[in-house]
């Protein structure tokens, strides 16, 4: 597997565009389009929040269609809590793009991100659809990745290429999300993180769904910036078959190869989200080992990754590992606290549930001063492990989020 | 029922003291003692964290004793994750106080709050036990309430008095806690919030436990400052019977009267915790109505009360109610999002799941600018309701918690 450039347009037959429609008050790009030159199969995973934004509801319906060719996305407005009018607006957003491309509305998926409870400025979107379709290009991935951002500070793109028998398969992706990031997405026809993945692999829709489910479990669903689950989290994948590989229709060796590539890409994108979390000055990886089950390991890792106290300590480069212990114990998972080890970078702080002999805070501090902080918790109660990603919690986070909508 | 002064020494026969033992680096008081002149029955509720601090383990054991006469408390050190040495230190702390008062160790309960993973400075405590016992006084409630504080900015005391047949019963209390506040305590022999409640009511130990369980459910267990559950949360109640009322031995009218008083006091103390949360500039009450069950109502209220995004918005006086909706939907509770109403102070923002007609953010803003912010969510799916309390999330919170242990 090799890492390549090109983001969502790295795979064969995908075009993208992005422009400014004036949805955001700023002069930033806010409307994006992703297009496959040939019909593709698609799968989606959506937020499990009881409140689901209108684009989530419309995309879930549209995913029942056999094939898809496009995804239209706006930033600056979540089109959530807008009632029936919101659903209609999301549907019209998809349809207006479809009409310009000669597609039916159901072949177009739709996503939105931004403020909740403000009517979608549909007229602004419609006014730009012609330009958006006209702007589609194999070099449009950058504009696409730019247009979907909200409080993000950097574009988030990634692409890989690997051999499958005699074919070369590519997977590309872009994602956004810096706040309200604590996704728990399910493909069972249910983040605001948005992720768009493209591939030229030939794969059946059903198997594509399974691959997506596997890939998000250990990637997007293990990222948390602030513990707040969004109403709009969505992850889409489109597979257009142009790589010409033998179509993947069951969970065979090719499926494994494809899923490995997808997992790698999703993991990279997910970590970009944590690294660019609102106000983040540091990237944090929580590794949990020795749990009884993978679910347990995930729960503990995720709980630690949402500790405000720990994240403030990391911001202050303070190796206050008591906060790790307290969070691990609050995860609702069974383990023997008397066995637990905690490592801060390379320094063992807790050994069998008590302060490690020779633990020296000053030896741990350098690990907390770096840009990347790794915390390892070994429960020593089993063989299962998991990783979760987050960022530190800075004064800037509070500044960003106390002045957001006004 | 009338509100009276005197805190933990308001009920008959209770004495208290507090002094500086040098556990804290600052010159603040850090060691406290509560004493009943006659044997009292006691009940306790403790953190459900898998990691339990040594004083929690020791107090749970000591509570098996039939009667108790004292509680010794230190601040500045949590005596948690200190292994067997920590358990021994907590036990010695209780025993050294017991010896000076002519009690057995098991008649003394113990609590600690402060940093995790630093050995308890037992020698400093032992050196001050004589002064602590000598200082016991019916006017010592203030020193007691002061000595148990950590990052708290104010003492938290309350007391009530009410008639029960021909007797006058009093209940007094003190509590502490400003950070790592998201208690979920159970009396089933399992915050760092600490609460100490005294009463001169005559009541059996078993019934006292039931009363405490009822009282904490709607008070301490509904407060969250930062969503971080502590390893040390403890709530103790001592009942010495000196009011001379007919002993409450079952859940009768007197039990109801006593429990009402206890609930009122616990609610007042709990709200003091939220009001004095680390970095707090505002007090926030979340009211949830129309849930199918009380548990559902509590889950939704508690989930909203832990939204970092909402709490930042409240800090910035930004009526960003989309964040309320997103949190409610993430609580894992079944309800119809299309029915939900949200009120910000007196202004309806969401009506039947969509923006209320005539909603004007500028009308809501004054409610968010005040010191007390009330948010009401009506799920309109049932008759159950709950309240949760929190505070806003300020830059000061981050400052406090990035510089805590160093």
CATH top level assignment of the largest domain in chain A:
Alpha Beta
Largest sheet of chain A: 10 strands, mixed
Mean pLDDT of chain A: 92
What radius of gyration of chain A results from the CA coordinates? 21 Å
C-alpha end-to-end distance of chain A: 46 Å
CATH superfamily of the largest domain in chain A: L-amino peptidase D-ALA esterase/amidase
Helix-strand makeup class of chain A: alpha+beta
Q: How many beta strands in the DSSP annotation of chain A?
A: 16
Describe the fold and architecture:
Two copies of one chain form a homodimer. By secondary structure, chain A is of the alpha+beta class. Chain A folds into two domains: 2-275, L-amino peptidase D-ALA esterase/amidase (4-Layer Sandwich); 283-402, ArgJ beta chain, C-terminal domain (Ubiquitin-like (UB roll)). Chain A contains twelve helices and 16 strands. In chain A, the strands form two sheets. In chain A, strands 1, 2, 3, 4, 5, 6, 7, 8, 9 and 10 form a ten-stranded mixed sheet that branches. The model of chain A has no long low-confidence stretch (mean pLDDT 92). Chains A and B meet through helix 2, helix 9, helix 10, strand 14 and helix 12 of A and helix 2, helix 8, helix 9, strand 14 and helix 11 of B.
